């Protein structure tokens, strides 16, 4: 039993350590994969936006051309002329980095679509979601567009997708669809849990998982073997008068033997401390087959030398002291001399019936 407990404690410690390492590996892998997933979702949104802009503009059937050559240097301002007048905006380096469409021509087309109110914004989210479904399982997106076009004092807001995602928790980023910064797009992305995002084929995760499974298998085998051993012990002799009531505690007739505390507790609640030699002998009787100890076994238990000329006398005295300690009238336990099946002389521990 003690050996079983020690092995269980060691395995439990190893299992606890490895499970902690596994959880850490999964967390790190999940966080890294989620970061990569966000980057890919952003690239996917840019691709879907360009495709959507070209399709929507082509539906208008309006000829479009660009001329005038390339400027020698980049202008620090951009301007647009409408019926309401000319609008000039300063080029903002931060906002430039957030533009989804790098091409100024395509950005102008997007601005024109919203000016003439011909843009079907919901199609953009559908295209993005299709791309997400193909490459990022369990991801879901939503879009919100704030339009601040010239001449529109109140501005307009368009929202498509799952509205419950439109919180800072799911915010992917804020972008601009045109080069005049009139069309501000906010994208929201719902990602799978860390467990689903983690790369379970990663070497560290696979190694830790194997160790965890191995430790659990050993735990099951230990438990099964210990249970089988206990069942075999119980089935071996159902009439055995030595009953293990708990770890290191045995009921022998009318006395309780605490092997760990080296005490005897009788039915009248009196407690007696066992001398060392009597304790060794009684413990050996408890664990011996049929509770029989041969003369030579008693010598081994007591630690005597076989060359001792007084060995027989010492044996009789030690057995006599144990009989006195057990107090047959109280415990109903007797120590009798006899032979075992191998014709060895020795002593039996019995209980009076």
TrEMBL record:
Example GO BP: regulation of DNA-templated transcription
UniProt xrefs under InterPro entries: Sig_transdc_resp-reg_C-effctor, WH-like_DNA-bd_sf
One GO MF term attached to the UniProt entry: DNA binding
Transmembrane segments: 7-27, 204-224
Keywords attached to this entry: Membrane, Transmembrane, Transmembrane helix
Keyword tRNA-binding annotated: no
Gene3D superfamilies, sorted: Winged helix-like DNA-binding domain superfamily/Winged helix DNA-binding domain (1.10.10.10)
Name this polypeptide is given: Uncharacterized protein
Organism: Bacteroides cellulosilyticus CL02T12C19
């Amino acid at each position: 039993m003690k050996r079983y407990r020690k092995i269980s404690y060691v395995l439990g410690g190893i299992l606890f350590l490895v499970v902690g390492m596994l959880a850490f590996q999964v967390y790190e892998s999940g966080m890294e994969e989620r970061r990569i997933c966000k980057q890919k979702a952003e690239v996917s949104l840019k691709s879907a936006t360009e495709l959507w802009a070209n399709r929507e503009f082509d539906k208008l059937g309006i000829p479009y051309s660009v001329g005038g050559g390339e400027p020698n240097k980049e202008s620090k301002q951009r301007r647009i002329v409408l019926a309401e007048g000319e609008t000039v905006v300063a080029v903002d380096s931060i906002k430039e980095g957030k533009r989804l469409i790098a091409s100024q021509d395509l950005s102008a087309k997007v601005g024109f679509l919203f000016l003439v109110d011909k843009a079907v914004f919901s199609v953009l989210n559908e295209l993005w979601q299709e791309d997400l479904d193909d490459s990022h399982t369990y991801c879901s997106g939503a879009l919100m567009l704030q339009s601040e076009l010239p001449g529109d004092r109140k501005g307009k807001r368009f929202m498509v997708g799952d509205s419950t995602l439109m919180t800072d928790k799911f915010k992917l980023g804020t972008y601009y669809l045109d080069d005049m910064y009139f069309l501000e797009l906010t994208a929201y992305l719902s990602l799978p849990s860390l467990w689903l995002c983690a790369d379970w084929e990663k070497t560290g995760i696979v190694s830790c998982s194997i160790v965890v499974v191995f430790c659990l298998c050993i735990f099951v085998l230990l438990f099964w073997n210990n249970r089988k051993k206990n069942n075999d012990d119980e089935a071996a002799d159902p009439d055995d008068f030595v009953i293990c009531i708990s770890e290191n505690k045995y009921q022998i007739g009318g006395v309780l033997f605490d092997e760990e505390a080296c005490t005897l507790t009788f039915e009248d609640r009196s407690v007696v401390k066992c001398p060392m030699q009597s304790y060794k002998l009684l413990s050996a009787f408890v664990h011996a087959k049929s509770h029989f100890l041969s003369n030579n076994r008693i010598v081994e238990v007591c630690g005597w030398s076989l060359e001792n000329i007084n060995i027989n006398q010492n044996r009789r005295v030690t057995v006599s002291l144990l009989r006195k300690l057990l107090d047959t009238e109280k415990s109903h336990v007797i120590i009798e001399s006899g032979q075992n099946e191998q014709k060895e002389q020795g002593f039996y521990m019995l209980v009076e019936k």
